[in-house]
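Can't paste images in this forum, so I'm doing it all in text. The chain is below; anyone willing to post the predicted structure tokens underneath?
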Amino acid sequence: MTMKDDATRIIAPTRQSDRIEGVYFATIRAFEDERGRFMETFRREWFPGVDWDRIQCNRSDSKAGVLRGLHYHHHQIDYWYVPTGMVRVGMVDLRPNSPTYMATQTLEIGANNNVGVFIPIGVAHGFFALTDATLMYMVNNYYDGGKDENGVAWNDPHVRLDWGVTEPLLSPRDQKNRFMSEIPIEELPK
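Text version of the structure:
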């Protein structure tokens, strides 16, 4: 999929992950001159078929060594972009009816890889800050007081996600994330 602006100039070619169905990557182009640079980092049209009527944009600043996740939602899509620093994104498909059920993927995004990541409902996601980093993320549903905030342990042996780290700095919330085998089936994605 490639999106174009009115002048038919390519703005952000998007491609689907070859590992997890429904995950997309948007290649962000920078337009630079002597004043600096400009980038369009998100456009609704890049992801047709998604209801973006209730957009909420959030910012997460993390120090190097912080791992956030794994989180998943039943009612919310995420779109991530890292304007400063570098992070290693980790994802696992928790949707039991997906052809890529339990498939995992990691990739590094940020300063050296200017990519946006579209994460569908039911795909658990997190990131490890390789440097001090800022993650900007959009969701297509407003925060609901935590009712749709779910987690899987970052080091779940059943998931086998290769973070390339053994002792990350975790929030108290993420320290409480359970292994999948401990999560009641009704709490997992459908």
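The chain has one domain: 2-178. DSSP finds one helix and 14 strands in the chain.
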